[in-house]
Amino acid sequence: MTAPSDVSRPDKILYPDAGWTKADVVGYYRRVAEYMLPHLEGRPLTLHRFPDGIEHEGFFQQARAGHFADRVGSLRIRHDQPTGSVEHMLCEDVDCLAFLVDQGTLTFHRWAARRGAIDRPDLMIFDLDPPDGDMGLLKRAARRVAALMRDCQLSPFVMTTGSAGLHVVAPLQPRSDFDAVRGLATRMAERLVVEYPDELTTEQRIEARDGRLYLDVMRNAFGQTAVAPYSLRARPGAPVATPLDWVELDKGDLRPDGYTLENLFRRLGQKGDPWARMFEQAIDLPKAWKAFEALD
């Protein structure tokens, strides 16, 4: 393991409001690795890097840099033109995680598919961001998505994003392609909008939402990514994307950015990772499609 003295510029302040340094952030990721790495295994990543801290503009990186070669895994994936073939990054051990953080990475975004079945996702993702931080609406929307997933024989899991919203995710057996998964997610979102037209929308244009919560299913597409569980976010307080138990949505003080670098390990010590065995509940997508069509 890399010694703390090997962190470049360890005293560099990355979160000025809380005083968290690069050494603190590397230490966080080393400590959380046992919970986080299973969620990254085999998945191409996009990094959100902030070499000068969150008060300065960051940038996204999906292609593996040349000087990462000895420290970071890779998976070459062919995309539609003009992107062509891209050598994506894989991170599957704690030293790789620490190395990428030492390069200024704060947030890890992951694919919904893994190496060996890169065109067949094993996750369906609903991204829920409420207008004006309306937590009541956000919680209701998450429960409604989860209820419909259960009606479709899917097993829903929920996570705070560490930003403004929640992700509701269902594990899949990696047998269907992205178009099929996104197709079902789109139909499900449209059904929910019909049932709750005053609160939910599939309008991508913000000005057309009229205060309704947008059911974003666009992450269910080839090449799209979603924030990885236990990733830090580049926001004041160093919030963390945190998997939850469903009963935790009943907590009055629940906030999408409520778990942070400072308090996450207290929670993990009490509850562990609620997503640790999620793929034991994965189903084949045609079964979910059949259940959905039977609802009409």
From TrEMBL:
Keyword vocabulary terms for this entry: Ligase
Gene3D superfamilies (UniProt xref): DNA primase, PRIM domain
Leading EC class: ligase
Top-level taxonomic group: Bacteria
InterPro entries documented for this protein: LigD_pol_dom, NHEJ_LigD
Record keyword Ligase present: yes
NCBIfam families linked to this entry: ligD_pol (TIGR02778)
Name recorded for this polypeptide: Non-homologous end-joining DNA ligase
Organism from which the protein derives: Guyparkeria halophila
